[in-house]
Amino acid sequence: MNKQIKRALKVVLPLILGGFVLYWVYRDFDFDRALEVLHYGTRWDWMLAALLFGLLSHVLRGLRWKQTLAPLGAFPRTADCVDAVFISYATNLILPRVGEVSRCGALAKYDDVPFGKSLGTVVTERIIDMLCMALITGVTFVVQMPVFLTFFEQTGTKIPSLMHLFTSVWFYVVLFCLIGVGVLLYYLLRTLSFFEKVKGMAHSVWEGIASVRRVSNFPLFVLYTVGIWVCYFLHFYLAFYCFAFTSHLSALAGLVMFVGGTFAVLVPTPNGAGPWHFAVITMMMLYGINATDAGTFALIVHGVQTLLVIVLGIWGWMHMALRRVS
Fold first, then answer.
1. 276-301 burial, b for 16+ CB within 10 Å, e for fewer?
2. Which domain holds residue 170?
3. What's the structural domain count of the chain?
4. 9 falls within a domain
5. Dihedral of CA 81/87/90/91: which sign?
6. Which of 181, 193, 305, 325 has a C-alpha 20 to 30 A away from that of 295?
7. What phi, psi does 172 have (nearest 5°)?
8. Domain contains 132
9. What's the confidence (pLDDT) of residue 247?
10. How far apart are CA 264 and CA 274, in angstroms?
11. Cα separation of 88 and 92, whole Å?
12. Is 303 contained in some domain?
């Protein structure tokens, strides 16, 4: 298989997976209802507030990234760190999980930060994110265990009989998502094995990973980390107040859906399209929201948030490029 075909598959397969899940989720959906809510039933002041927290989460991630680069002797501009984060999220819309590489490449190009070292700091970020998500998930699962158990039962992941297992549409949705995650892990391992073959790259990556132990202000690092996840949650939860049918949902309900949606985004589709909708809609229905309203919420909120990612990505790219020209 030549390189062109492999590159094409990396773009096409996530689109096919996301499209498949979206088709099953919205195959009988009333899109006229969604348009009606979009035009007449959306509180855009609350949507703007939610988007501001989405923007702030990226800014905090850029500030934290700069902190981990300093022990390596790399001191890029703060604006470049933030712009590179913007670019990485936009890149993930085209090539899921390639954004982490693209932001390291941006700093290497515009600030002469060694690629291997910056990649190591990004690996550290992902490990910390996984630990934070595990902690949030554990606490949420204990507090809202009945809701999660009901979700597993209704999605075919906890089935009393094999016959029901293989006749559940939702089971196949979950199955295809798990296959997608497996393919993602395979390519990540292939990427890491490639880096190991490059002279000096493995050492540089490890040096970047270890940099977190030498940050100058560790309490500030922790504060940035907490701030990032609080902003992620508010970016999602404040969207409840945009619609009359979700404004009554509690913060705890929002936390449950936030956890489900965060894990769904691990599936390599553009911005989690498909799996995210599936998880949020299914969990929202457990709290009494009808399927049409839940589907409308997921469609509008995900669409607006994706638009934010695109706008920020374009801004980040233009800002870095124009600064270099000037």
1. bbbbbbbbbbbbebeebbbbbbbbbb
2. 14-325
3. 1
4. no
5. negative
6. 181
7. -70, -30
8. yes
9. 95
10. 9
11. 6
12. yes
